[in-house]
Amino acid sequence: QVRLVESGGDSLQAGGSLRLSCSASGFTFSTSCMGWFRHIPGKPREGIARVWATSGNTFYDDSVKGRFTISRDDAKAELYLQMNNLKPEDTAKYYCARAPSGSCANGWRSFAFWGPGTQVTVSP
Predict the structure, then answer these.
(1) What's the pLDDT tens digit per position in 63-72?
(2) Contact yes or no for 8/19 (Cβ under 8 A)
(3) For every residue of 70-100, which 3-state class applies, written as one string?
């Protein structure tokens, strides 16, 4: 059974940093493209970062490029999102997600499973 559990969400002030973690089980993590999404109430859920299996190549949405870093530890089956210089507009529920293949080349539509999410709230 595929299981993704996010942790690390918090409330903090703008300019701060936070690291989200995602613990994965029930599938072969090391051969899966993994990603982070976020949902702001009233808006569609959006993909913000993804990391290829094996190569470790990454892709970021423009809204987080240069501030957020996605990484993975295949030995631990964990996914991370380091978030720096947080802004109030980053306030959202953040979700870890899995794509069925190792390549992330098909974009955000390739993701098929999400965790329950963790809340990040950034105040001015």
Answers:
(1) 999 999 999 9
(2) yes
(3) EEEECCCCEEEEEECCCCHHHCEEEEEEECC
